[in-house]
Amino acid sequence: MKPSETLQARCIATVADLNQRQGWDLSLETQQEYKVDLLRCLPEDVDDDKLRSIVVIYHEDHELVHALQNCSHIDNNLAWIEWMNKAAAFLQHAGLFWSRDVAVDADDLAQMALADLIGSINSFRYESHFSTWAYRVIVRSAQRHIRHLNAQKRNGITVSYEQLSETANDVESHPDILVENALFVAFMVEVLKAEANNGERLARIFQLWFDDKMSPEEIAKHMHLSASRVRSLLKYARSLLIRHAAIRDWYGDDRMLEYGDPGMEY
């Protein structure tokens, strides 16, 4: 369906406003190109804040996305090689070399994740940064492969996603939960790196709290910060993470507090 004139006007006005405010220095012709491309992604009822967010992300990521989407693009092959390497590094960072049930080959997982990325790339709508969306696809691809391998190992007895979520503390019964949790910790780290200012440091602080169970005081000593600053950064990290549907679906809205509220005194 053709976008309404109202949406078209809002889109070009937002592009023009951000171009001026952010100093993008886009020509009028380029602004029109932005509008045409963005209208393929925008729902009619998009609110102003979401529209601005999508335009900003489009400005930052569209060159990479276009290279990945267009097989005739001069950088297409190079872009996909880069993302193959990123997928492999991401899975290795999550520690996915094996689980107690069955061997898990990180290269196999990376190849399957790349195939899923290629199959999904045209559905990307700039609602988050491309890297965040791509790592989410990688997580889901790896989850499917790991469940399939573990189901085969258990002689055809499958464990559903819902069952895994409900039995998240029953590691003895479902050791593949360890692997899936490692995937999501790695995913959250990549979200923070992509979405936050000084994302590398914030991701490290969050990982120490969430994954290593360190208190704000312990993290403060490790990172040479004050404990109050660590608490503020952890709150900021959680506020970024709980906006993502994949993380809310996995942990639930309350599970981000599982290891204690970082704003509370320990």
Shape type: globular
**What's the total helix number?**
12
Estimate the helix proportion, in percent. Answer: 55-70%
Low-confidence stretches: 97-102, 156-175, 253-266
Order of helices and strands: HHHHHHHHHHHH
Assign the structural class, choosing from mainly alpha, mainly beta, alpha/beta, alpha+beta, or little secondary structure. Answer: mainly alpha
Number of strands: 0
> How far from one another are the termini?
55 Å
How much is the radius of gyration in Å? 21 Å
Compact description:
68% of the residues lie in helices and 0% in strands. The chain is an all-alpha fold. The N and C termini lie far apart (55 Å).
Features:
mainly alpha, 68% helix, 266 residues, 12 helices
What does this protein look like?
- The protein has 266 residues and is mainly alpha-helical.
- It has helices spanning 5-22, 28-38, 48-69, 76-93, 106-120, 130-153, 161-166, 176-195, 199-210, 216-223, 227-241, 245-255.
- α9 (199-210) crosses α11.
- The model is unreliable at 97-102, 156-175 and 253-266 (pLDDT under 50).
Secondary structure: elements and pairs:
Elements: H1 5-22, H2 28-38, H3 48-69, H4 76-93, H5 106-120, H6 130-153, H7 161-166, H8 176-195, H9 199-210, H10 216-223, H11 227-241, H12 245-255
